[in-house]
């Protein structure tokens, strides 16, 4: 497409000076026949170039001396700013990571401490319970022993009384039956009988 | 001015006239030079005033100035390499001057100073002189080895050397004629179709008005195309300057 347009423009370039020649019945102050650009005899054409060199020189000076260093400064400042921001972000991330690690360590430490405290409390409670139970057992054992002694004493007492009652009753019965008492014989018989029953 | 009689006057738009009457006449300052001065003012304003705030987050004008800077900087660095930094202001000035010359010429009533072969040739000759001076300053007489590529058979020297010299000398011609022809062609076409609009529109009543729509539509499309050409030719001028500078700095 560009090529066809270029060809068309070239054709028009060739054709148009001819048309313009017809049109230039009112030649301007400077134009002869044909393209004004090709009229190098025209002093204005040369003057145009001289002025252009002056203006372009000024443009080059202003660009090289003021404009481009300023733009470069702006771009450099932005680059530095972006790099600085990235570094700051990096540092902040490292700080955050460190804080996170510290936090995790603190949590682990706290958990371990709590576990230890729980263990200690449990052991202490268990030991306390054990000693209390032991004391209670000892007390109960002492009470049982005392009670047993008491019972034994009471039984012995009761047994002693039983021998007396049995001797007296047997003596009285003998006396009633045969008219005379044999206290010594009865006592011996009772003793024998009691011994035979294992109650002495 | 548009149509005198039956003929189409497409070339009077390129005539130089004094700027501001007698004042311009006295120093031969034409409307063409006035447009150059306007381009200079606009470029300087864009680059200096546009970036004056030195904002980290640029506004529209600063973004435009910065993208212009980075665009040309990319061309120079891509073609010449890091040594090209010294020549960057020159290429930037050339690019902006041609671009603004082309673009300003598209405004109604404006003059296109890049449509003058004298102007484009002077710019191309400036590029040629700068490139040659740079090459001589860097390489001294060794620069002349540029005209005979290393490794070419010695027997072909009588053929190769004249060809290389002609090709070197024709650079400013091709550089200037390309820009000149593109701008002239575009403006002649605009003028021709613009004249058609007036001629057809004023010729045959209602039918003429309807018929005038066609060249009018053509002109609308052409203006868009000319904006592309205006940018493209400035780009071509800048990139060819950079390529020549590359040759001057590196010799092939």
TrEMBL record, chain A:
The organism's place on the tree of life at top rank: Bacteria
Chief location bin: membrane
Subcellular location: Cell membrane; Endomembrane system
Record-level GO cellular component terms: endomembrane system; plasma membrane; proton-transporting ATP synthase complex
Topology within the bilayer: Single-pass membrane protein
Coiled-coil stretches noted in the UniProt entry, renumbered to this chain: 86-164
Signal peptide: 1-20
Keywords linked to the UniProt accession: ATP synthesis, Cell membrane, CF(0), Coiled coil, Hydrogen ion transport, Ion transport, Membrane, Signal, Transmembrane, Transmembrane helix, Transport
Residues annotated as transmembrane: 44-62
UniProt-listed CDD domains: ATP-synt_Fo_b
Function: F(1)F(0) ATP synthase produces ATP from ADP in the presence of a proton or sodium gradient. F-type ATPases consist of two structural domains, F(1) containing the extramembraneous catalytic core and F(0) containing the membrane proton channel, linked together by a central stalk and a peripheral stalk. During catalysis, ATP synthesis in the catalytic domain of F(1) is coupled via a rotary mechanism of the central stalk subunits to proton translocation.
Database matches in PANTHER family: ATP SYNTHASE SUBUNIT B (PTHR33445:SF1), ATP SYNTHASE SUBUNIT B', CHLOROPLASTIC (PTHR33445)
Family recorded in the similarity comment: Belongs to the ATPase B chain family.
Protein name from the UniProt record: ATP synthase subunit b
Organism placement in taxonomy: Bacteria, Pseudomonadati, Pseudomonadota, Alphaproteobacteria, Acetobacterales
From TrEMBL, chain B:
Family note: Belongs to the ATPase A chain family.
Localization annotation: Cell membrane; Membrane
Annotated membrane topology: Multi-pass membrane protein
Pfam family, one: ATP-synt_A
InterPro entries listed in its UniProt record: ATP_synth_F0_asu, ATP_synth_F0_asu_AS, ATP_synth_F0_asu_bact/mt, F0_ATP_A_sf
Keyword Cell membrane: yes
Single GO MF descriptor: proton-transporting ATP synthase activity, rotational mechanism
Organism of provenance: Belnapia rosea
Gene behind the chain: atpB
Keyword Repeat: no
Functional description taken from the UniProt entry: Key component of the proton channel; it plays a direct role in the translocation of protons across the membrane.
GO cellular component, one term: plasma membrane
Name the UniProt record assigns to this protein: ATP synthase subunit a
Transmembrane segments: 34-52, 87-111, 117-138, 188-214, 220-245
NCBIfam families (UniProt xref): ATP_synt_6_or_A, PRK05815.2-4
Keywords carried by this UniProt record: ATP synthesis, Cell membrane, CF(0), Hydrogen ion transport, Ion transport, Membrane, Transmembrane, Transmembrane helix, Transport
